[in-house]
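Q: For a teaching session next week I want to show students how multiple molecules come together into a single three-dimensional assembly. I've collected the sequence lines for a complex. Could you give me the predicted structure tokens for the whole thing so I can convert them for display?
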Amino acid sequence: MMRYGQEWSDRRLETVLGTVLRFGVTAAALVVVAGGGIYLWRHGGEPVSLSLFRGEPSDFRTPNGILRSVLSLRGRGLIQLGLLILIATPVARVAFAVASFAWERDRFYAGVASLVLILLLASLAGWVG
Amino acid sequence: MYYICIIVFLNITIKATMVLETVHAMTTLGFTIVTLAGSLAAGFLGALTGLGGGIIVVPMLTLGLHVDIRYAVGASLVSVIATSSGAAAAYIREGYTNIRIGMLLEIATTLGAIAGAMLAARLPTGAIAVAFGAMLLFSAWMNLRPQPEHLEPARTDRIASWLRLGSSCPAEGGTKTPRTYGVQRVPAAFAWMGLAGILSGLLGIGSGALKVLAMDKVMRLPFKVSTTTSNFMIGVTAAASAGIYLSRGYIDPGITMPVMLGVLTGALLGAKVLVRARVRVLRWIFSGTVLVLAYEMIFNGLRGRL
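A: Of course. Below is the structure for the complete assembly, covering every listed component.
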């Protein structure tokens, strides 16, 4: 049913994926903590209703806008960058799976994983919704 | 006994967070601290019971802190990605996760998640709250139901064997020979996964219980394969709807920062304690909390207060 080589490369893929995940989550959490620190330092004393519960400006909802506000060292921009890294982590995981199925010449599952990747990118890029 | 005390304390923390009606007099720092504490407790309990932090975080933010439900769902989705990815990194090395099954069913869950996120933007917030309450009732019922004995491993049927889904996993009891398992009824499981995706995108939860149900009961996978593969899928599913929430402007940095950090830390602590905890007592206490939250969500949703 399953050849030895296939099983071996599945295991190797799993190890690589595990590393990607751990790295992504750690990086995201650190960036969010840094951004949160700056944000609270600057705005911590303000009443809550002024800063929350409103639609986000484009600075905080598109990858370009987020990068712009990170470059001007805004705390909330940095938080959003961390969240973007976090959302990108599963996307990277699927991209790795595409590459590894292609490496195994498993066309069917390379196609399956590509389809999932396209759906993820479409939603992140704002093409759907 | 020691753990029961901790659980009772955490429940009180969550409920205390909910009765804080003075939110509009709060400072941003105060809001952050309260949300962080509540999310920490939610992540901890979610990991211990296996239901995830999302089902507590969303009611806490909406009922207690009067956050718009779509912002609460957005923040919860992000924390779902964090805990799923954090846990998957540990699970994936053990060799139970079936990546082929995960990838194939992710087509269904991501399509569902995108549909759920689109639905969330079009439904009135009260309707989302009522749906959330119904899901809480279902979770409480699933959680308290006696776990039936697992059925014998199935033979792989025609579709599953064409899709090469059968595999092997480490056998229980420490024997070296891996245990091979078969897979059944892929189309039915695919449909269940679509539903799990819709609920995830609409309510900001991982839908882990539904995913495990589809793999365990419909496809007849070994339980450990179902739970780890489900966890593998949860992050990808949540990312599909989180992208839409982000580009719609429903992911607020000020709300999401404490929720994500709190739930992630709580879940990591919960996973450490899990081995020693008395899960049965805990399930009852947790289900009690969930029932109260279900009532509040449905009642306030119908009254149009959320």
